[in-house]
Amino acid sequence: MRIYLIIHRHNEDIAHIHRHNEDIAHIHRHNEAIAHIHRHNEDIANIHRKNEDIAHIHRHNEDIAHIHRHNEDIAHLHRHNEDIAHIHRHTEGIPSIHRKNEDIAHIHRHTEGIPNIHRKNEDIAHIHRHTEDIPNIHRKNEDIAHIHRHNEDIAHIHRHNEDIANIHRKNEDIAYIHRHNEDIANIHRHNEDIAHIHRHNEAIAHVHRHNEDIAHIHRHNEDIAHIHRHNEDIANIHRKNEDIAHIHRHNEDIAHIHRHNEDIANIHRKNEDIAHIHRHNEDIAHIHRHNEDIANIHRHIQLQG
Fold first, then answer.
1. Domain extents in the chain
2. Among 41, 45, 22, which Cα is nearest to 193's?
3. What is the pTM of this model?
4. CA-CA distance, 272 to 280, in Å (whole number)?
5. Rounded to a whole number, what is the distance in angstroms from the first to the last CA of the chain?
6. How far apart are the C-alpha atoms of 163 and 169, rounded to whole Å?
7. Which of 162, 187, 206 is nearest to 21 (CA)?
8. Contact 140, 87 (CB under 8 A)
9. DSSP state of 83
10. Cα dihedral 9, 11, 14, 19 sign
11. Which residue has the higher pLDDT, 247 or 159?
């Protein structure tokens, strides 16, 4: 009975292992689905990075369009600067005119009442005619000063654009590092998944080895069952042999009885023979007595005769 209980508990363990194996098969299918999702997520992550790159390119294209418009403005300013340079070349005499005006003012102060005022006035009229352009030159100088300040602003913008270009390159490096860090994070998570799978595979390998042990136990149990059946056969044979030995002893007893019976039969036959002899002897004795009687009669007759 104890063997049957052990086998029953063992069968329950085997049923539990079968259910566990079904769970493992379900986990394998689930892991394949997760691996498919991971690959899909990697594709999505690649698409997100590409979209970020495309958005960065769109913004960069807008910056380039802005720079093109700015370059057109700069080209316009360059042409304007060429005009200013042309004006500079044509206004090199302005300082001399200023000095001449100072001389004229000095002359005005020092030439009141001079007899040659008429001639000087003619000279002054000549100078006035030549200095009507001075207000225009002042306005042009203000424009030139404005252009100089604008050129300084453009130079500042150029330096600012160089800073922006450096920032863009740094941002591209940072974006590359962010994507690289995301890849590293994905690799870390992937490595954790692999470590989990390794531990799971070790557990599965342990279960496989356990299943092999169980299969070995099954074969061993079949051998034991075969031995039990063989032992039962041997026990039956032993019991049959004991019965046969008993029969042999019984047969020997019967043979002994048969021989004894034969001896008894022989004795009976001998006794019958002895009885027959006894009766025969009695008959002979009777004959002997009868013969004696006859002999006595014969003697008696002889004596009488």
1. 2-110+117-214, 259-305
2. 41
3. 0.33
4. 12
5. 115
6. 10
7. 206
8. yes
9. H
10. negative
11. 247
